[in-house]
Structure formats: C-alpha cells, structure tokens
Amino acid sequence: MAVGGCVVLLTDLASKRSATRKFGTFLAFLFCIAAMVCSYTLGGQLRTAFSNGIAVEGLVVTMQILLAAIAAVTIVASSEILQSFHLPKGEYRALIMLASAGAMVLVQSLDLVNAFVGIEIMSVAFYVLAGYRRAQAASEEAGAKYFLMGAFVSAILLFGIALIYGSVGLAMKANGLELPQGYSFTNIVTISKAIHQVPGFGTSPLFLLGAVMLIGSLMFKAGVAPFHMVAPDVYQGAPAPIAGFLATTSKVAAFTILMRFFTIMAGADTGAAINVVVIGLALLSIIVGNTGAANQKSIKRLFGYSSVAHGGYIVLGLLASLGAESQAAAITAVTFYIVAYAITTIGSFAVVAWLGKDGEDADAINAYRGLGKRNLGAAITLGIFLLSLSGIPLTVGFLTKLGVFMALLSAGGTWVAVVALIGSAIGLYAYLRVISEMFFVDSSQQETSSTDGASKLIAVSAATLVIVMGVFPSQALLPSFEASVTVPPVSGDEVK
Amino acid sequence: MNELILVIVALPLIAAVIASLLHEKSAKSISIIGSAIACLVSILGITTGGTIDRGFHHVFNAPWLPKLGLMFSFGLDGMSSLLVLLTTFLTVIAVIVIPAPKNAVRAYYLSILVAGALTNVAFASLNILLFYIAFEAALIPVLIAIGMFGGADRSKAAIQFFVFTVIGSLLLLSAIIGLRIATGTFDYLTLKDLVASGAVDPSLLRWFAIASFVAFATKAAVVPLHAWLGRAYINTPTGMLLLLSGAMAKLGVYGLIRFTMPLGGEFAESLVPLIVTLGAVSVVYGAFVAAAQTDIKAVIAFSSISHMGYIVIGAVVGDDAARSGSVLQMLNHGITTGALFICCDFISRYRGSRQVTALGGIWSDSPLFSRLLLLFTFSSVALPLTNGFVGEFLILLGAFPKFPYQTAIASAGAIGSAVYMLWMIQRSIYGGTKSVGSKVISLGVSERSVLLALALMIIGIGVAPSPLLAIASDNGHKVGAAMQPEVK
After folding, report:
1. Helix H segments across B236-295?
2. Which of A393, A394, A474, B145 could anchor a disulfide with B240, C-beta 3.0 to 4.6 Å?
3. How far is residue A226 from each of residues A158, A272, A277, measured CA to CA in Å?
4. Comparing C-alpha atoms, which of B404, B296, B415 is closest to residue B353?
5. Hey, is B49 helix, strand or coil?
6. CA A241 – CA A345 distance, rounded (Å)
7. What is the greatest pairwise CA distance in chain A?
C-alpha cells in the first residue's frame, strides 16, 4: 500500500505540469479512488510485509479507505480556493497525497521506526500546507508555529522510541528471551512480548519514560491538550479545506497507532503512570477544548478548540482499551468515533468554504447571522454538524459519545465520565451560540450566490451521512466497525 | 393492534413532512388532519387491549440497534396512555387555535408536530435508552420554535432552556449507561425486576436515583432547578408553549414515577421527604413570584411552577390516592394552563399588550371569551366543581398522613393561587377599556368550539372524575407495589 501511495505521488508530481486545473484534480481524485479500491480488495486478512514492519488487516483497511477518502474530498473541495488565491495547484495536490501516504504508512506500521517515518512524511507535508497561503500573514504564522512545535515534538518522539528500543533490548537480553526471527526491537510485537513476559518491565523507569514520550508526542500530532496551542491558530490561519484535512488526517493516523500501542499494553502491569498521564491529557483536552470554544468570534477557531475536545473523548476511549474486558468495546467505539468525527469535521469546514466570498472563508461568526433566512440549506447543514458535535441524539455524534462512555464506564472510570459529561455540556453552549446566530437573530446581510459547488456537495453529503449514521449506523457505507487490532502472533506469543 | 403507538407517533411526523413539502396554505389543514387522527387513535389506546406484559398493554418490540441494546420497545399503562392522549390533544388544539407566524408557517407546524411525536415516544417507551433519546431529541424542535418564533428575549431564552435541561439529562445518561453495564440491558421491565429482586449494586442505584431526580426535577421545574422556566415560557410562541407546559413538563414527573422511584431502590425512598419538601416550596415560591408579575403570560408561567409542585408531591408520596390525583392533575394542568395560555394569546393579539396595566374592559366587550376565561381561572385556583379541585384534593389528602407540615404549606399555597389569579383577572378583564385603538376580542367558530370543549372538560372532570381516576390508578397499584420496601 505504501508503494501504491508513492506511485500516486510521483505520477501526480508529473501531472502538475499539465495545462488545465481540472485535469490535474481529476487525476488526483482518480488515484485516491484507486487507493481506496486497493485497500478494499486487500480485505481483512492479516498480512505482513517488509520483515514484519507493516501489517494490513481490518482496522488498517478501514483507516486507509478513510484517509484516501479524506484526501480525495479535500482535493476536490479546494479547487475554488486555490483558484481564488492564485495558489500553485500541482504542489498542493502532491502535498495532500504525500501527507495521506505518510498517514497510511503510519497506520500500517507495526514497527515504531516505520511509524516515525510515516509521521515525518505526514508532518512535513502538514507544515507546508498549514502555511500554504503565503500571501496572508496569518497563514504564514500558522505554518511557522506548526513547524517549530512539530519539529521539536518529532525529536521527542524519536528519543522516546530510542528509549523503548534500549529498554526492550536490555530487558530481553537480561531475561534470556530470544528476539523472534525477523523482528526488530522496536517492533510492536517485540515490545508486547517484553511487556507481558518480562516481569517488572512494564514499570521500569526507562520503558515508562520512553512510553510517556511516545504517547505525549503522538498526542501532540493529534492535537490533544496541553499540546494544543497550535491547533486553533493553524485552523484559523489555513484555508478551510486544508484545516479540515489537517484536523482529520492527523487524528486518524495518530490515534490508530496509539490504539495499537495501547492494545498491547492492556492487561499487563504498567503501573499507574500511564493511566494518570492519559486521564490527565483526556480531561484537560475536554475541559480546555470546550471552554475555549465557548467564546470564540471566529468559527474556524471554534472548530479548532472543538477538535481538541473531541480528541479528548477519543483518548478516553483509548483509555478504556487499556482494560482487558472493555477492550473490544473500546476499539469499536474509538474506530467509530474517528470515522464519524472525520465526516463531521470535513463537512463543517466544507460549509465554511461554501459560504466564502471572494475567496475568503466565512470565518467571523457574525457573518453567519441570519443565515437561516438567507441560505436555509447551508444553515441546516451547518446546524446538523453543530448538533452532532454537541452529541445530541439522532445524530452520529450522540452514538459516538455513547459508545465511548459505555466503554469507559465498563472499564470503571466513573468520575472521569462525569467530568467529561460536564465538559460536554459546556461545549454545548458554544455550538448553540452559532445555531442561535444563524436561526434566531435577524440580519440585513445580503446573500451572494456561491460559486463553490464542490464544497456544497461535500457538505450536504456529509450532513446526510451524519443523520443516516446517527439513526442507522449498521447500514453505513464503510466497512465493519467491529474492528479489532490484530498483531501477528509469534511463536509462543498470544497477542491480540 | 400493538402497532398503535407507532401510528400515534408516525402520523404527526408524516403529516409534518408532507406539510413541509407542499404549499404553505395547505400546511395547517394537513397538520390538523394528522394530529386529529393521532388523537383519536390514542383514545383507542385507552379503550383497547393488545398484548399485555407485566402491567403494560399494547406492548410492542422491534429492534433498532440491537448490539447497543437499543430497541423500539413500547407499552402503555394507565398513566402513560392518558399522557399520550393529552399530548396528542394539545397538539391538535395548538394547530387549530393558534395562528402560525407569517414568515415560516411550515417550519412552525413542523416543530410542533415533531415535538409532540417525540414526547409521545418518550411517554410510551419501555426501553430506557429510547426514552432518553426521545427526551433529548424533543428539545430540538422546542429550541427552534423558541428561537425562531419567540418573544423579544428568545435567543437567550432558547439557549438557557436547552443548556439547563441538557445538563440534567447528561447526568441521567451516565446513570442509564451505568445500569446497562451492571445489568446488560436497557429494557425497562427487565431492569425493574432486577432492581426489585435486589440483584443490582446499591451504590449504582443510589447514583441512578440522584441523577435521574436531578434530570427530571429540572424538566418539571421543581425549585431550585426551576430558573429556566420563567424566561423560557414567556418567550415561547403559544402553540409550542401548549406542548411545552402541557406535555413536556409532565415528562419530568412521569420520569420520577416511572424510573426514579422503581429503579432507585431504597435510596429513592429516602429521597421522598426531600422531594415532597421541594414540591411544597415550589408551590409557595411559584405563587409568590406569580403574584408579583404584571405580564399575564408571566403570571400563568409561574403559576405553572406552583401547580407542578402539587403534582410532584402527589407523584412520590407513595399513596395510591395521591398518585391517581397526581396523574389526574397532570391532565388537568395540561387542559387548564393550556386554556389560559390560549386566552392570553388572544388577549395579546387583539389588545396588543400583555401588561395588566394596559388591559381592562374585556368583560363588557367579549362576553363569551371573558366568562370562559373566568372559568379557566377557577379551574386553576382549584375551585370545587372544576377539575383542578379533584386533583389537588386527592394529592393533599394522600400526602397529609405522611407529611403533614409540607401538606399544610402546600395547602396555604392554594390561597396564593387564588390571590394572583383573581388579581390578574380583575385587572385585565374588568373595569373600563384602557388601551385606545385595540381591537375587541372576537372568536371564530373553531376557536369558540375549542375553548368550549376545554371548558366542558374542566367541568366534566370536576363533576365526574371517576372514569379517569380509574384509568390512572390501574397503574397506581403497580408502581405502588414496586415502591414498597422489601418485606423480609
């Protein structure tokens, strides 16, 4: 699959020399579809490649299809914006596809080093994309901030991986455990073996330090507090479709690898350290994200804080996957949440792009005043996304929150759940404010017709999906949500 | 015949969808037809039988999301069949009598019909998660109605109403999920049996009792969780207000009777004195605040807090007579307060103001209207021969042996209701006409018939309440039995 991704990119880079914009978009779109089809045909069987460096199975297939879909949608949605801002199109498409390819590598990877490679590919593309609109100061600022923070965090990530490498190697040698044929010390399977079979390894300071660094830096990439400071700035500075792409792809990729990592830690004695860290991160995100969203004047910043809060809910689901009994429910819940969140976020940013005038995104919340009268379709679409983000029943947002809370409560985290619910209520106010501006307040603004048909289509389809998935999720179009994270068993190992 | 509930719920929804798609002129007629048929069918719900299961009739089960445990489980008993009838009836008269705002006719009817349908789902639901979903989702049409068609303060009112209610509901959600994890089911009847047999961890039941009480007390506007009601009711358009005050506030009390008491175990028992005291406080507090208002809509709104206080007392006190009285009073409150809000709407539209200082002289100008209004006032004050008296008397009678002090306070509150209602009526109906250029209130045929029908119901229930009480108390025994502490 990674090979597929590269081929796509190379061809795309070549195609940027083609004359018309439409042709290039179409070509890129075609390759994304091809990637989706390839993923789908690989099916749910577990396969490994590159000396057990990557593995493809059910969950990976789902995520890859999702990533490819996000990339396709973003490319299509961005045509208008690129045209209006006179931004180079070929590089843009290449960057989107490169970022997705990096994300796919990350999702497939079984070895932490491969994961790092994937993250770097993805991140570098992100840095450029965040600052893509070079003429605007806010965009440049966003790109620069993201790059600096991101590079720093990548270094920490690498250091964490190195620590884990060292600790695993030392532990295995010290306990006379054999390195399985064809696996390296940084392979998830090996780490799992070490955790489960070496007594006291899970609580050894070297490993814990490495693990915390790993988790922390991945959380940054996903936009979780307290590493979230960059997120609202980036989402506000970048043009809407790019912001949507960044928000969703980073979360899909980072949370998938975290899910793998957490699953192998389940049931083993890792002491309280990891639990405390994860709970802290989750609750902080939920509280910061929801309160931060409450008084925003810019809708893209509001979505930025909202994405921090939702990252927190996903982390709560991950927390539940640490407990042995709740693991299956937790994995299903987190997967469903990621998919549903991706759809909702892409849709929300598509509405922002749809309502943009003269190439400017409709960013100020005041611009939405009286939208219910001016453009009922857009208002209803955005209203559906806002209700879903608040977790109101009949939207998919409710089912996702329900899933996470059920998994969390069966793992025993009662007070955590209560705090999260309260945070949810706070966030409700933020979303209601926008709904109120749209429907309940009159405004004398004139309606200008939108030229961005692609964004309109994407937004409306996403909104429909949100309602359909909210009422009948089993009929949803995506492959099964009964995801499980399978890891190839090694002789003597029983790892799932 | 079990699909009755589906018909009752689906008809208004289908009518709403059709009305939204067609031209504005036909929206009203289609809505009337849909909701009227639903109302007639809900009468069938009381008179016919269907499948019976553990005290519920018309039991119906269909899967929705089986893996989550979410099913379309419906069933009716005495209390819920009466409440469903009330909801459908209020929906019909709301559509008939209150004219829709000119700028968004279809959205208006859509919100009323959807709100009514979702409330009925909640009343008839035997699956706790389904109840919760309907409970929450019903807030959306109300939010839209208040925000789009409401009074001057509507934006703030809508948001305040929504956030306040949702906070309580989220606590309820956590308790519901907790129950599911402990017992593996969302099915109400199964849960009731499990709790009664002592199979569920008491601390979980304690959390359920508290969380559900907070959620339902907020919905029913029991002091001190009543703060949202004043601004919300005043700013709600009357059509939606009929449903909001008449049916959806009852969801709170219904939740207490149906869920908190049976599923809260012994801890719920120990909450009863607190709840009764808060109910009595609500009665008096509501009366005091109502007496201080000069806007007639505000007077009626705060009187609602007062009346709900009685209903809450009767609901939890554990006496059969009181509970039947409470259920009856829920019906009565819906009828009476609905009638009062309708009259208030007429006054506001024709006279141009809702302030008592600007009104007067209606008695001489509109004889039928003002006499009917007087009758509705008597009902609200619980004068004998009106429906209000029967309900209130039964509640106080049943509550007195166990809680004499609170009952005494609540009875004193009845005097308060006479004070504020009669005062309001005196200043707004009698005397000379104050505002120049306002129109005389004249009632059309449909409006006259609706108000006369309401008046007949008021007197009818006041004089011969037995049939309704019999229906209401067939449930009284079941719930009462579940509430008795385990006899070892």
Report:
1. 238-243, 249-255, 261-263, 265-291
2. B145
3. 20, 20, 11
4. B296
5. coil
6. 10
7. 77
* Distance in Å, alpha carbon of B118 to nearest chain A alpha carbon: 11
User: Helix crossing, A396-410 with B154-183: angle to 10°?
Assistant: 40
Domain ranges, ordered by start, for chain B: 266-479
Nearest CB among B140, B166, B177 relative to A425 is that of B166
Cα-to-chain-centroid distance, residue A146: 16
- A494 within a domain of the structure (yes/no): no
Q: Is residue A482 part of a domain?
A: no
Tokens standing for B362? 């209606």
Q: Give the Cα separation of B441 and B350 in Å (integer).
A: 6
Q: What is the pTM of this model?
A: 0.87
Q: What is the mean pLDDT of chain B?
A: 86
B314: Cα within 13 Å, side-chain hemisphere = 32
ipTM passes above 0.85: no
Put simply, the chain A residues between 270 and 309 with a CB less than 8 A from any chain B CB are none
The pair of structure tokens assigned to A105 is 């590598």
Nearest-CB residue to B163 (from A409, A414, A428): A428
Q: For residue B475, give the H/E element and its range.
A: helix B466-483
Three-state secondary structure call for residue B63: strand
Contact A440 B177 (CB under 8 A): no
Q: Quote the CA–CA distance of B153 and B156 in Å, as a whole number.
A: 6
B190-225 residue pLDDT tens: 888 888 888 788 888 888 999 999 999 999 999 898
Is the model's pLDDT at A451 over the cut of 70? no
Lowest mean pLDDT: which of A305-319, A328-342, A433-447, B321-335? A433-447
Pick from A394, A424, A435: CB nearest B170: A424
Identify whether the C-beta of residue A342 lies closer than 8 Å to the C-beta of residue A252.
yes
Q: A219 Cβ partners below 8 Å, 6+ apart? A: A227, A254, A258, A281, A311, A315
A380–chain B Cβ distance below 8 A for any pair: no
User: Is A487 inside a domain boundary?
Assistant: no
CA–CA dist A24, A8 (Å, integer): 12
Q: Is residue A133 part of a domain?
A: yes
Partners of B208 on chain A (C-beta within 8 Å) are: none
A54-56 vs A47-49, strand pairing mode: antiparallel
Chain B residues in contact with A394 (beta carbon < 8 A): 133, 137, 140
A371 touches chain B (CB under 8 A): no
Q: What is the pLDDT of residue B1?
A: 67
Are A441 and B65 an interchain contact pair (Cβ–Cβ within 8 Å)? Answer: no
Range of the domain at A238: 2-475
Q: Is B64 helix (H, G, I), strand (E, B) or coil?
A: strand
B87 touches B335 (CB < 8 A): no
Ramachandran angles phi, psi of B187, nearest 5°: -80, 125
Confidence at residue A142, expressed as pLDDT on a 0 to 100 scale: 79
- What residues have CB less than 8 Å from A451, skipping those under 6 apart? A80
Given CB atoms, is A441 within the 8 Å cutoff of chain B? yes
Residues of A in contact with B144 (CB under 8 A): 439
| Placement of tokens 């060292």 in the chain | A166
* Burial class of residue B384, CB neighbours in 10 A (0-12, 13-18, 19+): exposed
Number of domains, chain A: 1
Taking contacts as CB-CB distances below 8 angstroms, the residues of chain A near B174 are 405, 409, 414, 417-418, 421
